């Protein structure tokens, strides 16, 4: 059967618009490879509008990273409150986020680590809310969830700092509190270990099908705390040593 990403695109866009959640993707549009999943991701992204941010992660320090584009409607800058009606499920993660102040357009030769970092303007704390357009979170093939924007729900940004080069991400203590209770407290905590590797991969490979990394975009680099599911009304507080604390309420 010929793979038809457009059918999955229509279903995912309809689920976003109507909140009629999916059991699975239609026959013939179920991804069987990372390339298939990204083909669906990209078509959905192009239909939603300009990419303003990226999420990128990796299961281990050495495995191939994965990514998803993020759009204006799910990007929040230091708000006190995020509306719970946006989400089917509310999974919170504390993440390190980088903002880019210069373009990294698609080109033939790969960017060096130094070239990528020279385009970074600041680091900030972030809270990603994971969600799904499927009826059951994690209930489908992982590639289907990758196609569904990598389970992205929203990204909340805290206060940026420009002196970020003095911070060593995999040595930073991080604490995630829910309603005043410590839900996770670790050092580093990111399964990718080094987020800089993820930024370089995104610049050299992951962002190419949607035009590369652009000035003004932010990149969140994966959970440092795992995913913690909360109910509407919960207050989440993320604290990275060296960065300002970020607190949000989802209700």
Supply the key terms.
251 residues; alpha+beta; Fumarylacetoacetate hydrolase, domain 2; 8-stranded mixed β-sheet; 21% helix; globular
Which stretches are poorly predicted, pLDDT < 50 over at least 5 residues? none
Level-1 CATH class name: Alpha Beta
When the domains are counted, the total is: 1
* Shape type: globular
CATH superfamily: Fumarylacetoacetase-like, C-terminal domain
CATH topology: Fumarylacetoacetate hydrolase, domain 2
Describe this structure in words.
With 251 residues, the protein is an alpha+beta fold. It has one domain (51-250): Fumarylacetoacetase-like, C-terminal domain (Fumarylacetoacetate hydrolase, domain 2), CATH 3.90.850. Helix content is 21%, strand content 31%. It is built from 5 helices and 13 strands. Strands 1, 2, 3, 5, 6, 7, 10 and 11 form an 8-stranded mixed β-sheet that branches. A 5-stranded mixed β-sheet has the order 4-13-12-8-9, with no helix packed on it. Strand 8 (173-178) and strand 9 form a beta hairpin.
Topology of this structure?
Layout: H1 5-18, H2 34-48, E1 51-57, E2 66-71, E3 75-77, E4 81-82, E5 91-100, H3 113-117, E6 120-130, H4 142-147, E7 152-157, E8 173-178, E9 181-187, H5 195-206, E10 218-223, E11 228-229, E12 235-240, E13 246-250
Parallel strand pairs: 1-10, 3-7, 4-13
Antiparallel strand pairs: 1-2, 5-6, 5-10, 5-11, 6-7, 8-9, 8-12, 12-13
Helix pairs in contact: 1-2
Short recap of the structure:
With 251 residues, the chain is an alpha+beta fold. It has one domain (51-250): Fumarylacetoacetase-like, C-terminal domain (Fumarylacetoacetate hydrolase, domain 2, Alpha-Beta Complex), CATH 3.90.850.10.
């Amino acid at each position: 059967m010929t793979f038809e990403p457009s059918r999955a695109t229509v279903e995912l866009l309809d689920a976003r618009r109507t909140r009629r959640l999916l059991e699975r993707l239609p026959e013939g549009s179920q991804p069987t490879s990372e390339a298939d999943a990204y083909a669906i991701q990209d078509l959905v992204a192009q239909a939603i509008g300009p990419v303003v941010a990226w999420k990128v992660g990796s299961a281990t320090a050495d495995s191939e990273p994965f990514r998803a584009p993020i759009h204006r409607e799910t990007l929040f800058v230091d708000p006190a409150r995020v509306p719970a009606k946006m989400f089917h499920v509310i999974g919170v993660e504390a993440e390190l986020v980088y903002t880019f102040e210069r373009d990294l357009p698609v080109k033939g030769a790969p960017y060096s680590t130094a070239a990528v970092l020279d385009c970074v303007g600041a680091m900030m704390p972030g809270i990603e809310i994971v969600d799904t357009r499927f009826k059951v979170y994690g209930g489908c093939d992982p590639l289907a969830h990758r196609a569904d924007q990598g389970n992205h729900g929203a990204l909340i940004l805290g206060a940026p700092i420009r002196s970020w080069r003095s911070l060593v991400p995999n040595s930073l203590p991080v604490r995630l509190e829910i309603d005043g209770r410590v839900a996770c407290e670790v050092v580093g905590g990111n399964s990718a270990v080094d987020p800089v590797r993820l930024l370089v991969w995104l610049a050299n490979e992951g962002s190419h099908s949607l035009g590369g990394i652009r000035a003004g975009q932010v990149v969140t680099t994966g959970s440092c705390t795992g995913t913690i599911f909360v109910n509407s009304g919960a207050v989440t507080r993320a604290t990275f040593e060296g960065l300002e604390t970020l607190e949000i309420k989802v209700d």
